[in-house]
Amino acid sequence: MPGPISVKRFKESDMFSDSFQLDTPTAKGGSVLVPEAVNAKTKSFLISEVDDDYHSPILPGLPDDVSKHCLALVPRSDVPVMGAVSKRWRSFVKSREFITVRKLAGMLEEWLYVLTVDAEGKESHWEVLDCFGHKRQELVPMPGPAKTGFGVVVLNGKLMVLAGYSISDGNALVSSDVYQYDSCLNSWRKLANMNVARYDFGCAEVNGMTYAVGGCGMDGESLSSVEVYDPEADKWTMIESLRRPRWGCFASGFEGKLYIMGGRSTFTIGNSRFIDVYSPDSHTWSQMKNGCVMVTAHAVLGKKLCCMEWKNQRRLAIYNPTDNSWKMVPVPVTGSSSIGFRFGSLDGKLLLFSAEEDPGYHTLLYDPNAAPGSEWQTSEIKPVGPCLCSVTIEA
Questions:
Q1: Residue 323 falls inside a structural domain
Q2: CB half-sphere exposure, 196, CA atoms < 13 A
Q3: How distant, in Å, are the alpha carbons of 52, 210, 230, 262 from that of 206?
Q4: Are 194 and 280 within one domain?
Q5: Are residues 54 and 68 in the same domain?
Q6: Burial of 129 (0-12, 13-18, 19+ CB in 10 A)
Q7: Which residue from 228, 307, 230 is spatially nearest to 262, judged by alpha carbons?
Q8: What is the distance, to the nearest Å, from the Cα of residue 388 to the centroid of all Cα atoms in its chain?
Q9: For residue 321, is it within any domain?
Q10: Do residue 128 and residue 267 come from a single domain?
Q11: How many angstroms separate the CA atoms of 197 and 223, rounded?
Q12: Residue 87: which domain range?
């Protein structure tokens, strides 16, 4: 097993010199050389100019399994620049295997990706924070027009942004576009379009697949259609629809099943309390009652679901799908009673971010495993602006 690896910096010109080398795997303090600064133009040049023979070793003189372990030991903050070294490195870094090897090496880190908006509420950007609240990197701009009503899912350690609603030259547009962000390469790429353009829909990952459920369509009509994305084939496939249209709903995955909750239907008065449950194994839908309505924030903690309903922003509702039961937990918020929340999660703990600009608000942290009376604390993790949504990516 190789010794620990440290990242050293070097000039881009060094990539074409004989100074690029790796200490032997048994040597203590072995090192991998990576570029100090690689902008988009330079990165493109490096990828095209470096010897990129896919059949050559990842690291000359070392078996590929050892080389992969060496690359997996590089700190996460330095991983994106490795993709500029060669196509072979880039191919490995963006693969599912890279995450698997990092997990086996104990190198996985949870980072929080928060979509925030500026003070005028016009421009949004993704902010990346670690478990201490330190800003870790700048995301390259998200492609496509600014949208609302889109969905976000983390699939195989990568962020997916699905569909949504936008205004262009005074015209309303409903999108079927899907983009994927690779945190290991700090880059976006276009995936296959969804079969149905939609917004205000539910979406979630279950068993390595992404599901998109309901929402509103091109003419604002409520949808009951459901489709699933296979990342291996880069393809969306329609599956059995919901029993009734449903928009403004949300989705979560538990124990290999897809749960749909909240939202409205054209066939109901008010809000739906039904929970639609889809089993990928049997390809069938079932229903339960006792669901949440008008949910403004939700997050999965372990095998339970945390929700915040619009009608009561001072109570956390925790759902246990095993017995279809709810636990209500008071939220110890002081100050403005109108403050709304968005949820994040890190290390099995729930973070409550302010959905409005409030300099005096401190992020609340809920630890479900803490001793009674100590579940709530404040956290130093705070986005620079109001939180629109957040996801946790482990890589």
A1: no
A2: 25
A3: 35, 6, 11, 19
A4: yes
A5: yes
A6: buried
A7: 307
A8: 13
A9: no
A10: no
A11: 10
A12: 5-104
- What's the longest Cα–Cα distance across the chain? 72
Q: Which tokens in the block code for residue 126?
A: 């993704």
Residues of the chain where predicted confidence (pLDDT) is lower than 70:
1-54, 119-121, 266-270, 334-338
281 and 160 in a single domain? The answer is: yes
Cα–Cα distance measured from residue 153 to residue 166, given in angstroms and rounded to the nearest whole number: 19
Side chain identity, residue 297: A
DSSP for 50-61, written as a single string: S---TTS-SSTT
132 and 230 fall within a common domain: no
Q: How far is CA 225 from the centre of its chain?
A: 23
Torsion sign across C-alpha atoms 306, 309, 314, 320: negative
Cβ–Cβ < 8 Å for 223, 208: no
pLDDT value of position 53:
55
Residue in this structure with the two tokens 């109108």, named with its chain if needed: 338
Instruction: Report the C-alpha gap between 4 and 27 in whole angstroms.
Output: 9
Q: Residue 356: its pLDDT value, please? A: 84
The pTM of the full predicted model, rounded to 2 decimals, is: 0.83
DSSP string across 108-133: --EEEEEEEE-TTS--EEEEEE-TTS
338 occurs within a structural domain:
yes
- Does the CA dihedral 372-378-382-386 come out positive or negative? positive
Task: Tell me, yes or no, whether 189 lies in a domain.
Answer: yes
The answer to whether 351 touches 367, Cβ cutoff 8 Å, is no
Structural domain count, the chain? 3
d(CA 84, CA 101): 20
- Mark whether 376 and 235 lie in a shared domain: no
- 286 and 335 share a domain? no
The residue among 366, 354, 379 whose CA lies nearest residue 114 is 354
Contacts of 161 (CB under 8 A, 6+ apart): 142, 150, 151, 152, 178, 179, 180, 181
Give me the sign of the Cα torsion angle 158, 159, 163, 169. Answer: negative
Please count the residues of the chain: 395
